[in-house]
Specification:
Blueprint lengths: L1 H8 L7 H15 L9 H12 L4 H18 L5 H4 L29 H20 L14 H13 L3 H5 L6 E2 L4 E4 L14 E4 L2 H14 L19 H8 L31 H14 L4 H7 L8 H6 L5 H19 L27
Antiparallel strand pairs: 1-2, 2-3
Length: 365
Amino acid sequence: MAKAWLLDGVARKDGNAELQRRFNKDLYPALGKTSVSSVSEHDIRALIRAVLSRGAHRQAISFFADLTQMFSWARKRQPWWALLVEGDPTELVDISPLIPADYEAERSRILSSAELLELHNRFQHMTADYHALPAGQKYEGIRPLKKETQLALWISLGTLCRIGELLQAEWKNVDLEQQTWFLPSENVKGSRGKKQDHHVFLSPFALHFFQELKTLTGDSQWCFPNKQDDGHVDVKVVSKQVGDRQARFKNRKALSRRRNDDTLVLADGQNGDWTPHDLRRTGATMLQALGVSLDVIDRCQNHVLAGSRVRRHYLHHDYAEEKKRTWNLLGDRLSAVLFSTYEHPPTESMMSFPDYAATGSLPPP
């Protein structure tokens, strides 16, 4: 039944790769040889509890939603509807009591200015310390986060983009001279029929990191190419690298060929772990504090705005100038936070950013 659903009943953007991985890990080992008619609500709870035992609360909730969707699909089709004559076992499961009471369904983590500066300095010091090691000691030394990953984090923060959207970027859509980046609708998050193209104006802050990235991957079609250079890296690779370096917050054994340390824990862990997506929330919150309207912030984040179909049909102002000033304002604020004490190696020149004064509100058009 599961294989039939993956083939004909669901079509995720990744070609169902994540579903297949999840089923291979959590469904098939437990129930792969169990007949559909024998699956009970207790089996479903056991599946969810097994995922929760790893501390993967969000994955458990998503897994349950996948199972619910699969059984709902099967109930309408032969031969499974006859096997489910006694009912859908997922309908008898309330997942709420299984989830820890302190679990936050929606993350609210925001990195403070001090944490952003700490992260920036951590990258600088780890890179310098590693390069200073003698050749024979580098294997045992603490390898810094890959440079492309560091740049991805700063670009995500400076553009408010989703990290997965950034990792799919192609150089043909990045114009460094015009300071623009185009995100086609097929690369952005959203439901079918509601996804929309996104045009980002690159502030001097974001432009700097794109320029640095160009020196590393500019010969590829992709801004973040995979090892074979026949596509982009996996869209979860940056999140995994950041998470692996905050091991104290992971309820798991060390994974093979993965880092397992605390080198990216910020503020001594007092504020919990952080993820690349938290940078997007951090940037948006900075703009709100600077007096930018929520409407413009939403557009900078490429949110599909609510409203009547009639209003969306007739109102087509693209807010290009407002968004451009907003990204500049964010870049100016981030520049002040990160680069007031920025130290370049002697071979590099100091960065120079135009002065977009952060006065607490957007400059006049």
